[in-house]
Automatic annotation (TrEMBL):
Gene3D superfamilies: NAD(P)-binding Rossmann-like Domain (3.40.50.720). One of its GO terms (cellular component) is cytoplasm. This is UDP-glucuronate decarboxylase. It comes from Microvirga aerophila. The lineage of its organism: Bacteria, Pseudomonadati, Pseudomonadota, Alphaproteobacteria, Hyphomicrobiales. It comes from the Bacteria. Belongs to the NAD(P)-dependent epimerase/dehydratase family. UDP-glucuronic acid decarboxylase subfamily.
């Protein structure tokens, strides 16, 4: 996600590997921290693994297009060959987290992007391109 945001803010083309139809799930950091906190606060009889993430799936293409829209970029999407080990789907099963810790993510993709884009804008505005690109 950070690569797409930085590429869009710099007016560069966004690189998608494969056709972009592979799905990913994105969980905003505040939700992850809340999930970790709740897990650490459970009784000792609650053991892992417990998946923490956002089960809502989006195609990589959808993410790229959403980033372009929200940044107001004129970037285009370009395709590169899909690495052979790239999974077609990534979607966590958070049923244990929901059941044992009463936890579900609250921040949805668009809201998370709206909160994240200004962070990268500020890095780039400070001339901190190296840090923005390395995230």
């Amino acid at each position: 996600m950070s690569s797409f945001i930085v590429q869009a803010l710099l007016g560069r083309d966004l690189t998608i590997f494969g056709d972009g139809e592979q799905t990913r799930s994105f969980c905003y950091v505040d939700d992850l921290v809340e999930g970790f906190h709740r897990f650490m606060s459970t009784s000792s009889d609650v053991t892992g693994p417990i998946n923490i993430g956002n089960p809502q799936e989006f195609t990589v293409r959808h993410l790229a297009e959403k980033v372009i829209t929200l940044t107001g970029s004129r970037s285009k999407v370009i395709h590169r060959p899909l690495p052979p080990d790239d999974p077609r789907q990534r979607r966590p099963d958070i049923s244990k987290a929901s059941e044992l810790m009463d936890w579900i993510p609250k921040v949805q993709l668009e809201e998370g992007l709206r909160r994240t884009i200004p962070y990268f804008e500020s890095l780039l505005a400070k001339g901190n391109v190296a840090n923005a690109v390395s995230v």
